[in-house]
Design a protein that fits this description.
Blueprint (H helix, E strand, L loop, with lengths): L10 H20 L17 H34 L17 H30 L7 E8 L2 E10 L5 E5 L7 E5 L3 E7 L5 E5 L4 E5 L5 E6 L4 E7 L12 E6 L1 H12 L4 H7 L36
Bound molecules: copper (II) ion.
Length: 306
């Protein structure tokens, strides 16, 4: 079965080889565009920056799988091909110092790392790039344990800063326009937090004593949950916010309403949006509520929610 007496590869072996190649190639070829590549758990991004990182992630994971399949294949091939056969001596012929092979397995990983490093560096500078010509600047203050978002340079009719602050009973909704360059500047008055919108496929630390920044363009309307991604104390896990991306005209109207002194929920209502967060909800911060459910009230506790 393995090899015909003449040393020619048997049809069965050729078929097995072809099947192995097809098993790798077909799923890859079936994904005819970059958008169709498997996401391996990553959410669909809503910024060009996210899309760039997603393609890097998908292609690196696929490259890793191809290398993995090759290595596993070689391992199993060696195990089977060079297994001990009946009547064989205890030890096979011993060899050492195969210089070509040693050079090969030094050079190949170096090449792989160079390619990964190159694309990572290119994409990282794309993601970190700030044009200096943002259409909107949003100041982000992460504090224990909530968020404050300010629209830089904007004040209402009573000369107050236009900002949205979260509280223990209201999730802060960060209203943003789509298709505009938005510069975020982040600061913290207490400990390190991290601004994270999963659909940005990106998070950036919010650090006391310094200002971090990044720029993105949101290209899809919708409500997206945002979280603190740096453990910052007791209520870290409850430090959620919502990003509400709306059309540019809706945003202009929302901002005009805010300039007239309207609250964030009222101005959202005015543009036909849900006034409060719909992707997350305030958590009960009263630890007295966290008692276990009484016997017979069902097996699943509700985390102290009313
Ligand atoms: Cu935090």
């Amino acid at each position: 079965m393995a090899r015909s007496p003449s040393g020619v590869t048997s049809p069965a072996r050729r078929a097995a080889r072809l099947a192995a190649v097809l098993a790798i190639a077909v799923p890859l070829l079936a994904a005819c565009s970059l958008d169709d590549l498997p996401r391996f758990g990553w959410p669909r991004g809503v910024t060009p920056q996210a899309e760039k990182m997603r393609v890097l992630w998908s292609s690196s994971a696929i490259a890793g799988l191809v290398v993995g399949v090759l290595v596993w294949g070689l391992i199993f091939w060696a195990v089977l091909r060079y297994r001990r056969r009946a009547g064989a001596p205890d030890l096979p012929p011993q060899v050492t110092h195969n210089l070509p092979i040693e050079i090969l397995y030094t050079v190949i990983p170096f090449l792989i790392i160079s390619v990964l490093f190159y694309y990572t560096a290119v994409d990282e500078s794309f993601v970190d790039h700030e044009t200096g010509k943002a259409d909107l600047q949003v100041s982000v203050v992460g504090f224990r344990w909530n968020w404050k978002f300010g629209y830089v340079g904007e004040r209402d009719n009573q000369n107050r800063f236009i900002e949205t602050v979260g509280s223990s009973d209201q999730i802060p909704v960060l209203v943003l326009p789509v298709n505009k360059k938005i510069l975020f500047t982040e600061t913290s008055p207490d400990v390190i937090h991290s601004f994270f919108v999963p659909e940005f496929l990106f998070k950036r630390d919010v650090i006391p004593g310094r200002t971090n920044s990044f720029e993105v363009t949101v290209n899809r309307t919708g409500a997206f949950v945002g979280r603190c991604a740096e453990f910052c104390g007791t209520y870290h896990s409850m430090m959620n916010f919502e990003m509400r991306a709306v059309s540019t005209s809706d945003f202009a109207r929302w901002l005009a309403d805010r300039r007239q002194g309207m609250s964030t929920p009222d101005a959202l209502r005015d543009i036909g949006q849900a006034p409060y967060a719909i992707t997350t909800h305030p958590f009960a911060t009263d630890r007295g509520n966290l008692a276990a459910p009484a016997a017979g009230s069902g097996s699943s506790g509700n985390g102290g929610q009313p």
